[in-house]
Amino acid sequence: MKKIYLIGIGPGNPDYLTVQAINTMKKTNVFFLLEKAGKGGYEDFVRARKEILERYLDNRKYRVVIAKIPRRKKGCMPYSEEIKTWRQETAAVINGLIKNEMKEGESGALLVWGDPSLYDGHLEMLQHILKEGIINFEYEVIPGISSIQVLAARHKIPLNRIGETIVVTTARHLKEYQPEEIKNMAVVLDSHCTFQRLQDEDIDIYWGGYLGTEDEVLISGKLKDVIRDIKKIRMEAKNKKGWIMDTYILRQPEETNEPRPSLKRNIVVEEGRGE
Length: 275
Hints:
This protein has 275 residues and is an alpha/beta fold. 32% of the residues lie in helices and 23% in strands. Strand 2, helix 2 and strand 3 (63-69) form a beta-alpha-beta unit. Helix 3 packs across helix 4 (122-132).
């Protein structure tokens, strides 16, 4: 029977691959590299995956198949329907790859950014293909380091605070929270700087773009003090590369009887562009 591996590769740095991920790659026959159709710098994602393969597989024999997947059609239908339709269209592409590019008994792999279980649709796509019953295969999920974990590590902060819940959500759902409800929150998939609505609140932000890569940018401080820096650097970076992957943590100051030192404005940019 054919077998598919969903391998989490972290947010971009080859050093973030786990030993399990590397060992799984070494026993994989064919790698499917999915590239979104159209322009927008997505060739960077394919190139990064190729570099990972070249680094860890040495002279091992393996095949690489690059396939175009559709872009999500935005604004044509309700958001949940947009996502469902896009996943079905992408699942059809993956279905064709498994059917036509693999022999019985072979293993194939999809290299997934971050961790396959956190805000990534590939797992649901494989399950959709199996539910449709067109082809049959086994699959296994290899966990990876998420961008949220890397963000906390790079800012040298714990994700959780004692006795406090941490919320992981998307910018779309951030809009649903009142400022006083945001105690400790990690936010992903924000293409519109949704944190702007909180700029008058007493909230700290730990922001990171292109985490783990040579273009990494880190900004932390009181939201009202660094919001302009984040928006400016984010826009400049996106204009330069054609895309940006970023995430951030929002926190209210901890309640304590001890004097709390203020969180200083801090910007760290790779390639000597920081301050």
